[in-house]
Amino acid sequence: MIIVDTALARREAEGKPIRVGMIGAGFQGKGIGLQIMTATPGMRLCAVANRHLDSASDVFGQVSRLPTRCDSLAEIEAALARGDAVVTEDANALASAEGLDVIIEVTGSIEFAAQAIVTAIDSGKHVVQMNAELDGTIGPILKHRADKAGVIYTFADGDQPGVQMNLYRFVAGLGVKPVLCGNIKGLHDPYRNPETQRAFAERWGQKPAMVASFADGTKISFEQAIVANGTGMQVARRGMLGPDFSNGDPGSPLVPIEDTIGAFEPYLDSAGPGLVDYVVGARPGPGVFVLGSLEDPRKQHYLELYKLGKGPYYCFYTPYHLCHFEVPTSVARACLLADPVLTPRGAPRVGVVAVAKKDLAEGECIKEFGGFEVYGVAENMETIRKERLLPVGLAIDCVIRRNVSKETPLTWDDVQLPEGRLVDRLYSEQERLFSGNLEG
Asked: Are 259 and 394 in a shared domain?
């Protein structure tokens, strides 16, 4: 979005920067904060909420700025009015505070994030988030609420779903019909857990369970689900196709992404809604790709001239995703151009369901994404409803009510939900609004 730099420069010159509040100060939050404060004219990071105040203060400490610690909405608003940088433990107060234009949510939580995002929407603020787990569970109802409030609710540039959507729009703009949106992975093993991923996580300053959720397929299932919900696409089968060109060896030579088209081609239908999927062992990783269909022989001639092959399917790719570097662009698109990067287009088309990672015994608790108990797989919503499958986004903190065998998808009857959660009420609201209406 090259137009964004011009729009931000204008806001800087006018002395009217976009005022940003951020919820979450972990690995990504620190990177996003650094990018806004050092490389984004026309935008100011004004406040950070985090359950550990020292981490929130560290975000501003990256540029030697001393923040004001606030404990209430009144204190937050007073500090913002003075031009102070704010840190607080109260995410809901920050989300409702006067003096902010947009909230960036980057916690990776479910219930905590849902409460803050609903508060932000109700307070008339745009929401940019990198929480695929939340968006893949209740994104459509959050988008519906944002529409009613007249604000933007969107996923971010930089993370792979946002990069896919940018590429999808580019391909469609060429007059080529996107038939598959894909993610490139280096590893997929559903039995990875926090212990197997601990060394890697510690090396990069990340949480072991979060890293495990990347490896066990939960994260990519959520990422592709939200791309499906933003495009109207579906999955070819439960868990997606996920062809593995590494033959299970992460050290094997990578194949060019163009050479993987044949693995998807039997499932492609240029007249259908399209598919979301992923591939293991291809390059360029960790990029994304879009397969497009074009049947006009005159245009096929041009695409062959431009080295995209003979068709009828063409492979477009972006060789990188730069996560926190690109999030400020998403903020500007939402605030200045009313242009969401990736947002549900209506009814959910794909969800992510919980599958037992081991034999689960009555009384066990499902603790976290990427944990020891379950992993997530993408499935079409029609099947999820028909089989009463349990969304993995709602499975966290649930207690197993009866024994469940390894590799078995969990159903609503297999668990006891915690009481009083907002996320459960929002999911029910989403189902009441959209069930039986795939067009939304």
From this structure: no
